[in-house]
Design a protein that fits this description.
The chain is α+β, with helices and mostly antiparallel strands. The protein has five helices and 18 strands. It has a single domain, classed as 2,3-Dihydroxybiphenyl 1,2-Dioxygenase, domain 1, CATH 3.10.180. It is 17% helix and 35% strand. The strands form two sheets. Strands 1, 2, 3, 4, 5, 15, 16, 17 and 18 form a nine-stranded mixed β-sheet that branches. The protein starts with 12 loop residues before the first strand and ends in a 5-residue tail after the last strand.
């Protein structure tokens, strides 16, 4: 690990996660009916394009559903959790079995055969329960429930079934390369680490023989970013070099910062060769070392 470089100002934080979908209105109805998201009244078309955007919110966190016309390629039918285009959104629930029952009632496709409780021997993750499933367009999503000694205090509420978004998880080929980009470049702080293996992890991820190094990072606010570094099997496929925002596997983590120039300058210092393109609303768009899409925008002006 390369923990010698402590994050310094300026820093970025996650403002939203954007999913490319085939039908934004239909996807919004799914998030509302199955997962208790609120559909925000800012349905809009992006100027000069055929893209339509709908924002949904759960608690303090938001997902942006981006519809492009014509739509791009679908999520590969054989997509697995260790493929490097894999990215999921982790939705916190107060009762994971009741949440799975709700999803079953909506005919949701589960990746995990049932909720998995990580074993007590795993000091940093033991007691966490989780289950993977797919949204209408095949996007990976996760239900997660925290025991009393883990997770943010608000994740222990029992007032609602679906509570909010804890993090977005990305498959990475190298933890160190990910840390150089997200910690040393974007300024996120490492908040936790674990190494997960065994039958529970295999069933959770749907990958036989899975041994996963997990690193959790966060900004000052917003959901975290979690690395999923599959030590075994190390056979995940790379992100297709011709990936486009119209493709349905496209996920964009949207960051914001009070010092866009400073974050970009530091990122280019620690990760030379980082390419950047201009986006809407003053945002800059780029890709991390594994090809995951992200944008960085001035605070309160996210695209």
């Amino acid at each position: 690990m390369i923990d010698h470089m402590a994050p310094t100002e300026p820093a970025a934080e996650v403002a939203a996660v954007a999913l490319t979908v085939s039908d934004a209105a239909a996807a919004a109805r799914f998030f509302e009916a199955a997962l208790d998201f609120e559909v925000l009244p800012d349905d809009r078309h992006r100027a000069g394009t055929a893209a339509k955007s709908v924002t949904v919110r759960l608690g303090a966190e938001t997902i942006v559903l981006e519809e492009c016309l014509p739509p791009g390629r679908p999520v590969p039918a054989d997509s697995r959790s260790h493929d490097l285009w894999f990215q999921h959104v982790a939705i916190v629930v107060s009762d994971i079995r009741a949440a799975c029952d709700r999803l079953n009632a909506h005919g949701v496709q589960h990746t995990s055969p049932a909720p998995q409780r990580l074993p007590a021997w795993n000091r940093n993750a033991g007691g966490i329960e989780a289950s993977y499933f797919r949204g209408p367009d095949g996007h990976p999503l996760e239900l997660i429930s925290f025991p009393p000694d883990k997770g943010d205090a608000r994740w222990h509420s029992t007032e609602r079934l679906f509570l909010g978004i804890d993090h977005t998880a990305i498959a990475v080929a190298s933890t160190d390369a990910g840390l150089r980009f997200y910690r040393d470049g974007l300024g996120l702080n490492v908040r936790g680490r674990s190494e997960n293996w065994g039958p529970e992890q295999e069933r959770l991820s749907g990958v036989p023989g899975a041994r996963v190094r997990i690193t959790s990072l966060r900004g000052a606010a917003g959901p975290g970013v979690e690395f999923l570094h599959y030590l075994s099997p190390a056979t995940g496929r790379p992100n297709p070099p011709d990936s486009r925002p119209e493709d349905l596997w496209h996920v964009e983590t949207r960051f914001q910062t009070t010092d866009l120039d400073g974050v970009l300058r530091r990122l280019r210092t620690v990760v030379p060769g980082t390419g950047v393109t201009a986006g809407a609303g003053g945002a800059l768009r780029l890709r991390d070392p594994d090809g995951h899409a992200l944008s960085i925008a001035p605070a309160n002006r996210c695209a």
